[in-house]
Amino acid sequence: MKKIFLLYSLALVLVTSSCIEQNYPKWEGSLVEFQDAVERAPAAGVTYPRITVANTVGTVNLRVNLVGAHRASDEIIIYSAVASGTTAVSGKDYTMTGKLTIPKGSSFGTLTVNVLNTGKVGGSVDLLLQIDGNDEIGYNSNYNKVQLRITR
Asked: Which candidate in 19, 137, 139, 151 could, as Cys together with 124 as Cys, close a disulfide (CB 3.0–4.6 Å)?
């Protein structure tokens, strides 16, 4: 009799407590982030990853993720070189436009940096890139920086 009562009590508890409605908040925002920053561990002493490329590589393409709903039109995302983490010289070591496009209906865009072959041998320079977003799309502060180390 005690076993039946115990089983009945346990069944009653499970039936009355298993269907609790959960009202989780729904996030409606949009952010951009570097895929490499999400996948790679930060370099020692900094909060962003460092990617080493040779100065003979030519073009470096970095994938940028759109976190949020797809957009109905192309989105122009602004990016820049951060002076505090950059020793490379624009026009001498690299060129870039400062803008990338995330096509409508897509979750990804490509940031392109042209690495120039300086002909020098030995040493390296750094280019710290930061995604700034645009008026409607912000950036994920944990994953908005990537540093390119250009070796010679």
From this structure: 151
